[in-house]
Amino acid sequence: MPTILLIGAGLSGLTAARELTRQGHTVTVLDKGRGVGGRLATRRLGNGRADHGAQYFSAQSPDFQSLTQKMAQAGIVHEWHLEQSDPADFKHPRWVGSEGMNGMAKYLARGLDVRTGCTVTRITTNETGWTITASEADNTLTFSADVLIITIPAPQALALCAASGLVLTEADKAALMAIEYAPCMAVMLQLDRPSQLPKPGGLKQTDGDDQHSPVAWLADNEQKGISPNQTTITLHASHAFSQQHLDDPDQQALIPLLIADVTRYVPQDAIVDRQIHRWRYSNAIKRHPDPFLAAQAHAPLLFGGDGFGNGNVEGAFLSGLAMGRESNVQ
Ligand SMILES: Cc1cc2nc3c(=O)[nH]c(=O)nc-3n(C[C@H](O)[C@H](O)[C@H](O)COP(=O)(O)OP(=O)(O)OC[C@H]3O[C@@H](n4cnc5c(N)ncnc54)[C@H](O)[C@@H]3O)c2cc1C
């Protein structure tokens, strides 16, 4: 059976790895992050937690519904009743990781061969497949396999191919170049008392493109049920604000600008800690129509992730599942 190297231990990569491992393949997943999950990201803040990437997800396809039910039974996810805030916006049930969204990734990674802290720097071809060069701490490592699956955001995938001198066909390159992501600045706050955010603790403040309201989304992670006895707040800046300030050298200076936009929910004197994270690639706003791209190459090479198909958490899952099921790597 062909061996498989997979770049990216986000939801898409972990889903593909689980499916291919289930089929009997030897799969190695490499991720540059300290842990698994990618944009399913949760940070510790005081004695609490804050999700700073994906905030919640819906499950509309039977395959994702089935996984969601399984995770709910295992205590990994629970429903967040956001329809209480806006029934028009939240027509489907919304789910969250019970110990943060990252908990889903940890659950899915169980039993898989995942190497974190391992940044892929070069892709080269060998006689039958692929050789990957990666850096892990101060070491340079190489991995080889018959099949390569890349689930990192398309702009990063294109940069990696270019840096490696890997020539893609014009059609494959054009398909990857058409995928676009919006940036997002995320601020996490630890409070010394409850916030004034109304139940259920999640609020879309603008549609995301409003130039005059820097904060598009606020979440109270205690009300969300992931940060017991410790109020933490997540703020997501609007696309317009994030785009405007993406390359500001002093990211810390953005925090007061965002806090000033939410003082009616978050009293400034209640804030005891604050952190900011810049997502250069947050949501895929222009996506490839299919759940993955099988590139024209001398050995099997697949590109997938949330830039393919439906986008968002469920789209990333469906992309990974499709790569595992339909990529004909048997
Ligand atoms: C701020 C924000 C808010 C969001 N809100 C929501 C939401 O509420 N609901 C929703 O459904 N979706 C939301 N999303 C989108 C959702 O998080 C993503 O669609 C989904 O998690 C993407 O999964 P993925 O596996 O495709 O990619 P990722 O999770 O990005 O996985 C890719 C992985 O590749 C790794 N990687 C990158 N380069 C390398 C390299 N050179 N070597 C090794 N590893 C590498 C990264 O570390 C990462 O772990 C949000 C995203 C962000 C950032």
Description:
- It is a single chain.
- The chain is of the alpha+beta class.
- The chain folds into two domains: about 5-35 and about 115-180 and about 285-325, FAD/NAD(P)-binding domain (3-Layer(bba) Sandwich); about 180-285, Polyamine Oxidase, Chain A, domain 2.
- It is built from eight helices and 18 strands.
- It has helices at about 10-20, 60-75, 100-110, 155-165, 170-175, 240-245, 255-260, 310-325, and strands at about 5, 25-30, 40-45, 50, 75-80, 95, 115, 120-125, 130-135, 140-145, 145-150, 180-190, 200-205, 215-220, 230-235, 270-285, 290-295, 300-305.
- The strands form five sheets. The chain has a six-stranded mixed sheet, covered by helices on one side.
- Strand 3 (about 40-45) and strand 4 form a beta hairpin.
- Helix 1 (about 10-20) packs parallel to helix 3 and helix 1 (about 10-20) packs parallel to helix 8.
- The longest helix is centred in the last third of the chain and has 15 residues, at about 310-325.
- About 45% of the residues are buried.
- Bound molecules: flavin-adenine dinucleotide.
CATH fold call of the largest domain = FAD/NAD(P)-binding domain
User: What is the terminal-to-terminal distance?
Assistant: 6 Å
- Which structural class fits the helix and strand makeup? alpha+beta
Point out poorly predicted stretches: none
Annotation field: number of helices: 8
Count of all domains: 2
The CATH architecture designation of the largest domain is 3-Layer(bba) Sandwich
> Mean of residue pLDDT?
95
Can you identify the CATH superfamily of the largest domain?
A: FAD/NAD(P)-binding domain
Q: What sequence of helices (H) and strands (E) makes up the elements?
A: EHEEEHEEHEEEEEHHEEEEHHEEEH
Query: How large is the radius of gyration?
Result: 20 Å
| Helix percentage | 10-25%
Strand content: 25-35%
Strand order of the largest sheet: 7-2-1-11-18-17
Which CATH class of the largest domain applies here?
Alpha Beta
Shape: globular
The number of distinct β-strands equals: 18
